[in-house]
Design a protein that fits this description.
Layout lengths: L9 E2 L2 E2 H32 L7 H22 L3 H13 L11 H7 L5 H7 L12 H8 L9 H11 L3 H12 L2 H4 L4 H11 L3 H12 L2 H4 L4 H11 L3 H12 L2 H8 L2 H25 L3 H6 L4 H20 L10 H27 L6 H7 L3
Antiparallel strand pairs: 1-2
Helix pairs in contact: 1-3, 2-3, 4-6, 16-18
Length: 372
């Protein structure tokens, strides 16, 4: 059946005049029901008055009161909770403070006001200048949830009540998170808490973290200590660490700061010595002139020099082809040219030493070799 629409001259299926007649009749019935409910409460109070008891009397009092009221409820055909509730409401509203035009429901809700003077005053002053109290107005007065929420906070409370079941709450939350305008209004701390919960699964967390790390604006807001920790975790694999370190050491400022650390500088020096040893072993194993060199009565210096030349040639043959189509910055070109000049000077020095046996280094060459 289609829902009836109220208009200026009709309410539901009846005229406005007929509606007013119905309301007048029902108010009489409600007033009669209120008197009846208070009568039940008053008689229940007569049978079992409200008592002030200590903790030691509570168990016995509860048993005797419930037994009497349960018997009364059965004898008059009502539930124990209805009789006991009416008894409590009657105890909160002495007869001279009861209002005939206020429903028993409103009396019951306002009975929750603990202060008697405040309670008796409240029932005489409906909110907003209204002529009558409504159950929702009474619920608002005592801070209870209303049946027809109006304000945002009342709607939020209603949603919380409906979503007490975790499965329902999960579905509602998922639906709301699909609305960008809703997510945009969520407090930052609540977003963070929700994000932590949503990525508790490590696979999901890994995917999300990977996506976030691709966003420079996000990375830029990460605290420095967290960035350092993240880099350490991401470079636990030696192959990845080597690739990252190589790229970083190509940046002059980074290389300079790294070499300011004594431990780092020691490890680099050790790596260079170790690489030289490996290059020497590689030369002896792979070079076609290695057998002839072995037959020569050579000195350690001779072998080290041959190994250094071999290592330089091998490294250059590996690195230079990788620079194809790469455009270096002006600063990078300056650094390369300075190092090439040092290499040329070193080669000239080697040739002079080999041809003449003189290993003297003049001041200009010394400064060049030292990078000054």
């Amino acid at each position: 059946m289609p829902e009836k629409i109220e208009s200026a001259d009709k309410v539901g299926s009846v005229s406005a005049h007929r509606y007013e007649q119905i309301v007048a009749e029902l108010r009489k019935i409600v007033e009669a029901q209120t008197r009846g409910q208070f009568a039940i409460g008053d008689y229940a109070l007569e049978i079992e008055p409200m008592r002030e008891q200590g903790p030691q009397d509570r168990g016995e009092e509860l048993f005797t009161v419930k037994d009497s009221l349960f018997r009364l409820a059965e004898d008059i055909g009502l539930s124990y909770s209805a009789v006991n509730g009416a008894r409590w409401v009657a105890s909160r509203w002495p007869k001279h403070h009861r209002q005939a035009r206020v429903s028993f429901t409103v009396h019951r809700i306002l009975a929750g006001i603990s202060n008697e003077e405040e309670r008796f005053t409240a029932i005489l002053t409906p909110p907003g200048g209204k002529a009558r109290w409504t159950p929702d107005d009474a619920s608002r007065r005592v801070g209870r949830q209303v049946e027809r929420p109006i304000t945002p906070q009342e709607k939020v409370s209603a949603i919380h009540t409906l979503a007490r079941d975790e499965e329902v709450a999960a579905v509602v939350t998922g639906d709301l998170l699909r609305r960008p305008s809703v997510v945009a209004q969520v407090r930052q701390e609540d977003r963070i808490s929700a994000a932590h919960v949503l990525v508790e699964d490590e696979q999901i967390a890994a995917v999300v973290t990977g996506d976030l790390l691709k966003r420079p604006t996000v990375v830029a807001q990460v605290r420095q200590e967290d960035r350092v920790r993240a880099v350490e975790e991401l470079t636990r694999d030696d192959h990845i660490a080597a690739t990252v370190t190589t790229g970083l050491l190509r940046r002059p400022d980074v290389a300079f700061r790294a070499m300011s650390d004594d431990t780092a500088r020691h490890q680099v020096n050790y790596a260079q010595v170790e690489r030289g040893r490996q290059a020497r072993e590689d030369f002896e194993r792979t070079s076609p002139v290695a057998p002839a060199v072995k037959r020569i009565d050579r000195s350690v210096e001779f072998l080290d020099l041959i190994t250094a030349c071999h290592a330089f040639v091998a490294a250059s043959g590996r690195v230079v082809p990788g620079m194809r189509d790469r455009q270096l910055s002006d600063d990078e070109k300056v650094i390369i040219h300075e190092n090439v000049a040092r290499v040329r000077a070193t080669l000239d020095w080697i040739e002079t030493a080999v041809d003449t046996g003189k290993v003297y280094v003049d001041g200009e060459l010394a400064r060049l070799l030292q990078g000054e």
